[in-house]
Amino acid sequence: MKKLIYVFIFWIAALFLLLLMIPISKEELPPEPSVIKYLDLIDLIEQRNGTIRVVLKTTDFEDVFHEKVELFYDNQDVVFDMNCQESLYHIEPVERGITVKSIQRTQGNPTYLGTLDIYKTEEGFVLVNEVSLEEYLCSVVPSEMPASYPAEALKAQAIGARTYAALFYSRPGYPEYDAHVDDSVMYQVYNNIATSPEAIGAVEATAGLILCDSEKQLIPTYYYSTGRTEFEREEPWYAWEYSVEALDISVLSERLKAVGTDVQPFSSVHTLEIVSRGEENVAAELLVGTDTGEYHVYSEYNIRTVLCNGQADAIKQDGTTYFCKTLIPSGFIELTCMEGEQGILGYHITGGGFGHGNGMSQNGAKHMAANGWTAQEILEFYYEGCRIDSMYQGG
Length: 395
Hints:
By secondary structure, this protein is an alpha+beta fold. It has two domains: 38-221 and 359-390, no CATH class; 232-351, no CATH class. The chain is 25% helix and 27% strand. The chain contains nine helices and 21 strands. The protein has helices at residues 2-20, 38-47, 133-144, 151-166, 197-205, 249-258, 300-306, 362-370, 375-382, and strands spanning 51-56, 69-73, 76-80, 88-91, 98-100, 111-112, 115-120, 125-132, 181-182, 209-212, 223-224, 240-244, 269-277, 283-290, 293-298, 313-316, 321-323, 333-340, 343-351, 360-361, 387-390. The chain has a five-stranded mixed beta sheet with strand order 4-7-8-1-9. It has a five-stranded antiparallel beta sheet with strand order 17-16-12-19-18, with no helix packed on it. A four-stranded antiparallel beta sheet has the order 3-2-5-6, with no helix packed on it. Strand 13 and strand 14 (283-290) form a beta hairpin.
C-alpha cells in the first residue's frame, strides 16, 4: 500500500513540475507555413484548380466574424443577418464581381472576383472568397507595395507574394472554413488598395513563378517595409526615435498581459532592458523587473507591443511623425531608461527600419530596382541561395 502511495505522490509532483514549465508568453502570429516540396505544390494547385480561399475580415481588419453582411452583385443588393436560416450560403455571380458593402477598406467598399462562401456561426458570419491565385495576387501586390514603385521591384513582390501564399496550400490557416489565409497583415494584405495596370503587369510578367531552395522546397518569403541596408539611407524610416516621458505602470501592466504574461500587480519598475538579440541585432528578449517580480518578454513582435504605450509618436529622421497605436516601428532598437528614486520614470528608444525585419525590404527593393537591379537579383540578395521555378506544369 505504501508503495502505491509513493508512486501516486511521485506522479503528482511530476505533473506539477510539468505545469511550471509551460511558457506564459505566446506571440499571436499566424501558423508557420509548412515546408512543401515543389512537385507536391503542383499537385495541390491542380486539386484546387488554381484557386486560393481567403477569409475576409471586418472593417479595419479587426475580426473574422461579421455581424451583418451586405452585398451587391448581378445588379442586386443582398443582405444577410442573424435571422437567416441556412448555415452556409454560396454566392457565384453571373457577372464578375461581388461588392461587400458592409466592409470598408482604403479603396472604399471592396469588390471581389471569384465566388463567396458565407458561413453562419454563433459568433457571426465568416466570409471566404475563392479566387484564382493569379487574380488574388493582382490585389495583393498593390496592397503590399505602392504601384508607383519600379517594375522590377513589383515583380519581386509578386514572386514573393505568390510563394508565401503557396506555402499555405499544404497547411491552411483556417481549416475549419477550408481557407488558406486571411486578407490582413497576419498573412498578406489583399484588396485593401484597388489593383492597377502596374500591379497586374507585374503578376502577368511573373505568372506562376515561385522561390525554392536547392532542394526544391519553397522558401518562406517574408517581407517588410524598410530595413537598414545601404540602399535605404535616405528613407524616412531608416532611423527614428520614440520617447515615453512618464512611465504609466497601469499601461505597462496591460501591455504585458496583452502578450500573454501572467502579471502580478506592481507599483514600480526597476529594470527595463534588452537582454538578448537575434539576427541583424534585433531585440529578442526584454526583461521587465518590478517590485513584485521579473517578467521576460520574448520575440521582437511582443517586445514592440510592450514598449509601445499607445500614446506617443515615433519621430522619423526627416522630422515627420507616426502615431504608434499598438507597436513601435521595429525591433532594431537601443533602449535608454530615465531613473529616479522610485525606479524607472520613463524611457527613450532609438531605432531603425519599419516592420519585422525578416526577408525582403520593400523600400530596399524599390531603391535597388531604381539602380538597375532585376527582380531576380533583388530576390537573390534577400533570399540567399534561392532559385526561381514555375508552379504550373509546362512552365
